[in-house]
From TrEMBL:
InterPro entries: LysR_HTH_N, LysR_subst-bd, WH-like_DNA-bd_sf, WH_DNA-bd_sf. The lineage of its organism: Bacteria, Bacillati, Actinomycetota, Actinomycetes, Kitasatosporales. It comes from the Bacteria. Keywords: DNA-binding, Transcription, Transcription regulation. Coiled coil: none annotated. This is LysR substrate-binding domain-containing protein. GO terms for cellular component: protein-DNA complex.
Length: 297
């Protein structure tokens, strides 16, 4: 049953005249009559009966008009809920890498509690490939991902990516080993060609960057250890287990030194990724806008 026919029936129950319905809805009496007749065929029972020169609803018509109130209200509620300008409400599921969750998503979520109490955010920590897989099977609504300028992710036309922030990365080495090391990224890498390298265990992006810069320096890095936690990577470096990439602005503990990487620079690029057409959903539109705003501060 089409909602426009239900609306005609509801107005007829209220106004009692097809002419009045036509006047109110800006159509013709014959159109109202034809659409009510179609609705009756869809319902499988007469919905109106003559009453002098007018018509009235049959018992079935009155029951269907009662249902129409509920149906049309639900449709209007759904329309408002999906209106990009509507108040965000419902449950938003987000999967993202740890840095994005800790530094960007959590502060945004904290602010939402007061400003948008009808919006609930569910958070999952995942590396980009994992988050994108969850997005593809509709287990999350938003994926926070990253790639590097020296190891860009392959274009994917099945998703929409909104750029968020970029961050310079450096080479983290044991403190004493970094003394006197200068030059561009290949020269810095070359100084540690014989050292073990530490890379991510659940994503290959940083390993790809390490191999790209190492190739410019003329060697193949020996990947010995894998870890996801940046704090754990620092512990491993301080313990003398190897060298690794870390954010250039990341606080370092005693025993770890960050060496700048230039010519070429190493930059992490982050994104908010959603399925096509979903960014008009108010909760998703709001979250993407807030994350982008926080990233530009």
């Amino acid at each position: 049953m089409e909602t426009r026919r239900l609306r005609l029936l509801l107005e007829l129950s209220r106004l009692g005249s097809m002419r009045a319905v036509a006047d109110v809805l800006g159509t013709t009496t014959s159109t109202v009559s034809q659409q009510i007749a179609v609705l009756a065929r869809e319902a499988g029972t007469p919905l109106i009966e003559p009453e002098g020169r007018r018509v009235r609803l049959t018992p079935a018509g009155r029951r269907l008009a009662g249902h129409a109130v509920t149906i049309l209200a639900a449709v209007e509620a759904a329309r408002l809920d999906l209106d990009p300008a509507a108040e965000p409400a419902g449950t938003l599921r987000v999967a993202g890498f740890a840095t994005a969750v800790r530094a960007f998503l959590l502060p945004v979520v904290a602010g939402l509690a007061a400003d948008h109490p009808r919006l609930r955010v569910l958070v999952r920590e995942h590396e980009p490939a994992e988050a994108l897989a969850l997005l593809a099977c509709d287990e999350v609504d938003l994926a926070l991902t990253y790639d590097y300028n020296l190891a860009p992710a392959a274009p994917d036309r099945t998703v929409e990516a909104t750029p968020l922030w970029t961050a310079r990365w450096a080479l983290a080495v044991p403190g004493a080993a970094g003394t006197g090391v200068t030059g561009g990224a290949p020269q810095v890498f070359a100084r540690f060609a014989d050292e073990p390298w530490i890379v991510n265990s659940r994503n290959t992006a940083d390993e790809d960057v390490v191999r790209v810069v190492a190739s410019l320096a003329g060697f193949t890095p020996r990947v010995a250890h894998r870890a996801d936690s940046l704090d754990l990577v620092q512990d491993m470096i301080a313990a003398g287990l190897g060298v690794a990439l870390l954010p250039a602005d990341h606080p370092v503990r005693p025993g770890v030194r960050l060496l700048p990487l230039t010519a070429p620079a190493v930059e992490l690029r982050s994104y908010a990724v959603a399925r096509p057409g979903r960014l008009n959903w108010p909760p998703l539109a709001l979250m993407t806008r807030l994350l982008a705003g926080r990233a530009t501060r």
